[in-house]
Amino acid sequence: MKAAPQAQLRLIDLQDLDSSLDRLAHRRRTLPELAEIERLEGRLTELRDAIVAAETEVGDLQREQKKAEQDVDQVRTRADRDRTRLDSGQVTSAKDLSSLQAEIESLHRRQSDLEEVVLEIMERTEAAEGKVAALRADRSAAQDELSGLTGRRDTAQREIDEEAGTTSAARTAVAKDVPDDLLALYEKLRGQFGGVGAAKLFRGACQGCHLALNTVDLNNIRAAAEDEVVRCEECRRILVRTPESGL
């Protein structure tokens, strides 16, 4: 392949710009805020599930408490009814009186037991409600932190995108100075060799693979015409000759 020496030199400018674009893309993908955002989003998902579970527990306890309070009311109503019968004087039989008094005492004990149950459920409900409040506070703090991180990420990405836009514009201008066939080869090699398709020959070494060329290869390059596009025998990238090539 043939290309004017100046066009070959423009490949180095193009490579520098492409390397800058690659670095910018890597920075954008690896912003520290991205990992923190992912961590916080996972934390918020955990908190959301925990809040749902805690709220469900509160709801279950509230229903349980309501049922226990209804049981207390039923026992109290029955005891009040029996006490009214006892106080009315309608029951005159000693046996019936004794039985009624025993039932009232049993109902009082039952009421006391049920009231203890209600108190125990109330304590559990209070603890569960406290857990919900704490989880909601954690969620609010995580959301605030996520909002701050998102803002910093957006700012960093915007700055990177602006720099990438300027660099891309410069690349477009430089690419116009490179013949289509040489540009196509360069792009192909860039895809094959980690984003580096062209490199300087500097003091007898390829700056793409950083290996020194042997004497035979250097002699072949010395003998090549100035417009001949030469390749590194080690890495096969395009070698661009400069006054510092050591030829």
Automatic annotation (TrEMBL):
Superkingdom of the organism of origin: Bacteria
Biased composition (Basic and acidic residues): 60-86
Alphabetized Pfam families for the sequence: CT398_CC, Zn_ribbon_9
Name this protein carries in UniProt: C4-type zinc ribbon domain-containing protein
Sequence segments annotated as region (Disordered): 59-91
Domain C4-type zinc ribbon: 205-239
Transmembrane region(s): none
Source organism per UniProt: Actinomadura chokoriensis
Signal peptide (UniProt feature, chain positions): none
InterPro entries: CT398_CC_hairpin, Oxidative_Scav/Glycosyltrans, Zf-RING_7
Positions of the CT398-like coiled coil hairpin domain: 14-193
